[in-house]
Amino acid sequence: MSNKQTKKLTPAQQQYQKFSKAREPKRKVLRNTIRAFLVGGFICTIGQGLQWIFITYFNFTEITAGNPATAILIIISVLLTGFGVYDQIAQWAGAGTIIPITGFANTIASASIEHRSEGYVLGVGGNMFKLAGSVIAMGVFSAFVVALLKITIQWLGGM
């Protein structure tokens, strides 16, 4: 807490801040970072392995092999979410499971599972994109901004 915020607190509030700070459990940052790195790396390795399988055994090119590999990662993520395994992995690994494609699939699947009692249309269909909708909107906006930057840089380079 900064000194500016501490000055606005009453003495009792300042004493409570010190008391709570002393009893707050310490975060194990290094351990959590290593776990996230290992699990995230493992998920990416599975994706790369799937891509290699499609290139080697199914005659895909490097460009086209990414699509079926991504689809399989999504299916695996949704199945693990449905069986409750993905949440346990995420509990242990933390941020390592939010690799964009698997974390996004987990978000949509868990929202669908959570609201299935409200019906398929209003429950599952209406609620599964509440969190995912903002992710999609941010992705589209980011792609737009990057495209504008690329066009501007190319235009300035051509002058």
Keyword list:
159 residues, mainly alpha, 8 helices, 80% helix, extended
Brief sketch in words of this structure:
The chain has eight helices and no strands.
Architecture overview:
The chain is mainly α and 159 residues long. It has one domain. Helices cover 80% and strands 0% of the residues. Helix 6 (100-114) runs antiparallel to helix 7 (120-127) and helix 6 packs antiparallel against helix 8. It is extended. The protein starts with a helix and ends with a helix. The model has no long low-confidence stretch (mean pLDDT 88).
Write the topology of this structure.
Blueprint lengths: L2 H6 L2 H13 L5 H30 L7 H17 L2 H9 L6 H15 L5 H8 L1 H29 L2
Helix pairs in contact: 3-4, 4-6, 6-7, 6-8
Instruction: Give the count of helical stretches.
Output: 8
What's the main sheet like? none
Mean pLDDT: 88
| SSE series | HHHHHHHH
Shape: extended
| Domains, number | 1
Give the helix level as a range of percent. over 70%
Class by SSE composition: mainly alpha
